[in-house]
Design a protein that fits this description.
With 487 residues, the protein is of the alpha/beta class. 42% of the residues lie in helices and 22% in strands. The structure holds adenosine-5'-diphosphate-glucose.
């Protein structure tokens, strides 16, 4: 297919041998006042992880562009120069967005897979929209994949795609990766559509998770629901024609581009910005930092309460420490998120009202997105990083902090229930539900001898330099290459 864009002629390389299927495309559509559609790159996240692999092969990315289509959907081709590969849109209507994305993905699956921290809703019309949208994604992938292509499906929004796609295109090699936790059997069994979701996932040749714990939850569930014999690396399933097929399951802990974070942190701009930030905070002895999407899974509330109690009981002297919480706005149309936004604002307001002095607040709160360079300068400025999710698939923030500490200093306080805790054993690990435990651990991190901090940070950094995102991508794709096999 030829695409013309601003006089540049580019040739897309069909047939595609690698197809990435994810809810969002790495570009977003913005519509101008006169109705013209402009494409804007959405950097970071999955696209930077996959970029090298995408550039190596004839690749295409299938996903939603962020714009709402009317019911009679139009297919606007996206200029291929916008991405590291060709891009194909799956259009979503306003109703689909509400029922599939805000509904089934964010109000059913997200809370259920995160230990039901918020109560999941189970509505049949939302499920119907989830099935419909998964079908549309599978159809699009089936349409663009070349013969025998490799397809990598991402995350909880698209769990039905592997089986749907296999039905449409049995020649494909299909991998699925779940970016969020996979819940224990007892929770998953609540789901009225548990069987269909598991059948969807078992359509893949390889199903990947962040942690060994998630793998064993998945295998135990396959055994319980279908009575399949499982082994530690997967299972054999029987398809509708009676043929046996191998499904491999494994842990592939996602990571970051460690060298890139390290390099940004080393720039004079980042270092100057960190010094300036500390100055603006009043040059306290300790800067504590939280960086999260404003999500109820992240444990922001208890973290603020713990810090406030330390001020109240005199364990931290006012003026000696400032806690900066940065939170990106997210999922603002979902009710639980609107409530959380108010709760956090209230907690911050109380802390500042009760313990602040004129011109100096012990807790500072920014509910805004920032550029990556700015986030790195926050990391560079922070003596103690607080990452205390109640449950998190991996948590990249913890890894980004470590990668940004080029002087091997700083302390990472990390929830035992983040996937990252499996790897970052030298963090100050904490039970995120235990207010006293968080308080004790914050004090321990603040007062640890420099030699201990250096030992811990060095060991975490050397792990991350070896286990970076490039290793994640290649190990998943290599395992996918070997996976599968039919009788
Ligand atoms: P998230 O829940 O979004 O990801 P996380 O892994 O921590 O959580 O990634 C958040 C990203 O957003 C980080 O790269 C961070 O730098 C960035 N970010 C946070 N606050 C920001 C702000 N104010 N401005 C700009 N950027 C900000 C999901 C799962 C995780 C899993 C990832 C990847 O929930 O468990 O690690 O996917 O698989």
């Amino acid at each position: 297919m030829e695409v013309r864009e601003e006089g540049i002629r580019t040739m897309e390389q069909e047939p595609y041998e690698l197809v990435v299927v994810a809810n969002r495309l790495p570009v977003a559509a913005e519509t101008d006042d006169d109705g013209t559609v402009r494409w804007v790159r959405s950097p970071g996240g999955l696209v930077s992880s996959l970029e090298p692999a995408l550039r190596r092969s004839r690749a295409v990315w299938v996903g939603w562009s962020g714009r709402v289509s009317s019911d009679d959907v139009i297919d606007v081709p996206i200029p291929s120069s916008m991405g590291p590969c060709a891009l194909r849109e799956v259009p979503l209507t306003a109703t689909q967005l509400e029922l599939y994305y805000e509904g089934f993905c964010n109000s059913t699956l997200w809370p259920l897979y995160h230990d039901a921290i918020a109560t999941p809703v189970y509505h049949r019309h939302m499920w119907d929209a989830y099935v419909e949208v998964n079908r549309a994604f599978a159809a699009r992938a089936a349409e663009v994949a070349g013969p025998g292509a490799t397809v990598w499906v991402h995350d909880s929004q698209l769990q039905l795609v592997p089986a749907l796609l296999r039905e449409m295109r049995p020649d494909l090699r299909i991998g699925f990766f779940l970016h969020i936790p996979f819940p224990p059997i007892e929770l998953f069994l609540q789901l009225p559509w548990r069987q269909a979701i598991m059948e969807g996932l078992l359509g893949a040749d390889l199903v990947g998770f962040h942690t060994p714990g998630a793998v064993s939850n998945f295998l135990a569930l396959a055994n319980r629901l279908f009575d399949y014999d499982v082994d530690p690396d997967g299972l054999e399933v029987v398809d509708h024609t009676g043929r046996r097929r191998r499904v491999t399951a494994g842990a592939f802990p996602i990571s970051i581009d460690t060298r890139e974070y390290d390099a940004i942190a080393r720039t004079p701009e980042a270092q100057d910005a960190a010094v300036e930030l500390r100055r603006r905070l009043g040059n306290p002895r300790w800067v504590l930092l939280g960086v999260d999407r404003l999500d109820y899974t992240k444990g922001i509330d208890l973290r603020i309460k713990a810090f406030t109690e330390l001020l109240a009981d005199g364990s931290i002297e006012p003026g000696s420490a400032v806690f900066l919480q940065v939170a990106t706005p997210t999922r603002e149309n979902v009710e639980d998120y609107q409530r959380l936004r108010d709760e956090i604002a209230l907690l911050v307001g109380r802390a500042v009202g009760d313990h602040g002095v004129i011109g100096a607040a012990p807790v500072q709160y920014l509910h805004q997105p920032f550029e990556r360079e700015a986030i790195v300068s926050f990391y560079a400025a922070a003596d103690v990083m607080l990452v205390t999710p109640y449950r998190d698939g991996m948590n990249l923030v913890s890894k980004e902090y470590v990668a940004s500490r080029m002087r091997d200093d700083g302390a990472l306080v990390l929830s035992e229930f983040a996937g990252a805790a499996v790897e970052l054993r030298d963090a100050f690990l904490v039970n995120p539900y235990d207010a006293d435990g968080i308080k004790r651990t914050i004090l321990q991190a603040m007062n640890a001898p420099q030699a201990e901090l250096q030992r811990r940070m060095r060991s975490m950094r050397s792990w991350l330099f070896e286990h970076d995102v490039h290793r994640w991508t290649s190990s998943f794709l290599e395992a996918l290459e070997k996976a599968g096999g039919q009788e």
